[in-house]
Amino acid sequence: MVFHLLLDLFFPKKCVGCSKEGIWLCQECLENILKEETTPLRLVGKLDGLVIGASFKGVLREAIHAFKYEGVKELALPLAQIIVERLTQFDFPFLESVLIPVPLFKKKQASRGFNQATLLARVLQTELELTLLEDRLIKVKNTPSQTTLEPEERKKMVKGVFCWQGDQEEIQGKTVFLVDDVITTGATLNECAKVLKRAGAQSVWGLVVAKG
User: Fold this and answer.
1) What's the confidence (pLDDT) of residue 82?
2) Which end of the chain is least crowded, N or C, by CB within 10 Å?
3) What CA–CA distance (Å, rounded) separates 179 from 175?
4) What is the mean pLDDT of each run of 10 residues along the chain (212 residues)?
5) Domain spans of the chain, in order of start
6) Is 84 in a helix, a strand, or coil?
7) What's residue 209's pLDDT?
8) What is the DSSP secondary structure assignment for residue 165, as one 8-state letter?
9) What are the CA-CA distances from residue 71 to residues 27, 36, 65, 68, 128 (Å)?
């Protein structure tokens, strides 16, 4: 408690969008992000569909960068709320659905200290009242940064790097909402979807905060 008070004293929170003090992403900046029109995409590769919060630009880009690379974990709440808002706009049925975060390789997660997708999924678990399955979908091989790779190269890079280590009954015949922060080409989400369907999932939808 004292530690957090000292942090707020010496490193006060400021909105990544407008620098308003006391909060990492203020309501006005959040609402501006949500003004961007978006609709669910269906049949995206191995995914049955994809829900995108907004484009990876401006304030949202700054927020995700602070969350992911600067360790501002409190941003998980407003970033996940962007996904919740999109889902509630489109009246998704949640019966027989579970949440699964896109995993990081264990050494990368240890280095970062957390998996951003897991933090987002935990917020979604509370907001949507869905079952969260952590540590079942595993990344078994490390992959280098994909930022400079072409789509086909990304697809080859992630092939065979994920596996399902949970009980098949946990996802058998269910809809899986696969959670991540950003999608670029969709290679990672599609590879995860392939593994989950092989393990028994009926359908797999991607839930991402932003599209790069």
Assistant:
1) 98
2) N
3) 13
4) 48 92 96 95 94 97 97 97 93 88 94 96 96 96 74 82 94 97 95 97 97 94
5) 38-211
6) helix
7) 98
8) -
9) 21, 26, 9, 6, 25
The pLDDT of residue 56 is 97
Instruction: Give the separation between CA 192 and CA 199, rounded to whole angstroms.
Output: 11
Residue 3 pLDDT: 42
Helix 58-69, helix 27-34: angle, nearest 10: 120
Beta strands in the chain (DSSP E): 41-44, 47-55, 97-101, 131-132, 137-139, 162-164, 175-183, 203-211
In sequence order, what are the beta bridge partners of 41?
A: 50
The pLDDT assigned to 143 comes to 83
Q: Which of 141, 128, 148, 40 is nearest to 86 (CA)?
A: 40
CB count within 10 Å of CB 63 equals: 25
Task: Give the strand order in the sheet containing 131-132.
Answer: 41-44, 47-55, 203-211, 175-183, 97-101, 131-132
In this predicted structure, what is the pLDDT of residue 8? 58
